[in-house]
Amino acid sequence: AAVPALLAALAYAVLASAMPRAGGSYIYASRGLHPYLGFVASFAQWFGLSIAIGVVSYVTIPFARDVVAALGWAGTAALLDTGPVRVGLALALLWGAVWINVRGLAVYQRILVPLMLVMFVLGAIVIVAGFLHDQGDFAAGLMAREGVPVPELPDPGFNWWTFLAASAVLFSSFIGFDSIAQAGGEARNPSRTLPLAIGIAIVTVGSFYLLFTAAVYNTVPWSFIAERARTQDLTAPGLLGYVLSPGWTILIVAGAAIALINDLPAMFLVMCLTVITLPRRNPALEREVTVLRNRRLRTGLAGAGVLLLLLFLGVHTIKDLTADVTAWYFRSTPLWLGVMALASAIFLREWRGLQVETGGQARRVFETLPPE
Length: 372
Description:
Number of helices: 18
Structural class: mainly alpha
Shape: elongated
Helix content: over 70%
Strand content: under 5%
Number of strands: 0
Radius of gyration: 23 Å
């Protein structure tokens, strides 16, 4: 999951160095690929974010449940698992985030930066705790708390389809760096600082996630997670509560909730394609690139990103279309296609109007960057 994310991050860094403007994906694709694909990238991102913020708000509540459970408040923990309470708290969290964004960038910055630091500090506790304990400690903790042994499941062996399907899902954990590109025009010396920030973000987060996952599975048997995940929502830090004191459990679950709230979606495939087409579509902007100046190396890495992201997209689509669901609207693929069809109709209407307004020269509007 980290490999295509790294390639996508390189694509963003290349494009940010040449087009340091607010707007991120939209500016890059509309100037370096095609205005329609710029619109699709931004519209798909908006739609994906609309879905994701609801999902993130909803799945954050189990983290609060694990916190109160660690405090010994069993009744409150059970209450947080009821439908009305869980949905109500999720809506409150969602609209609280909306309020923060409406208040403006200054409020957002004052809240986000401290939360990021707290997330890394508390996540580091998970890493240390996970490597200080082992699966024997977990088995003893499970027996002491619930009086049951760790389930014994047959080892399914390695399967490429399962591996790729899991990687396609985990890829979404690495996508937050796209938000760096959205504020391009507001950064100091953006041609340098944006690529540097993207590089630092993907390396730091990638290393953090790998250590975090290794630490959790060092202590918690995979068979326990596989069995419990079928019937209830699990939080990785909450699983370490079997070997840690309630105080530490509360801290690490709170850190995981903060990490979840900070999650954002993005449109990476189009960005890799833009790196490939930029020299032909917009040579003037291509000459402004300061990251990976070697065009062949840049194109090769972007091409590798396209292939890996297409692979992930194919795996996700097949998995979605073959999933056993009770209704068609539980599949994301037809919903996404329907939304993109509507978006395309909106774009064509606006494009025709722009063509009339510019005397058939609409494409020239997208050959230069917008003013700062």
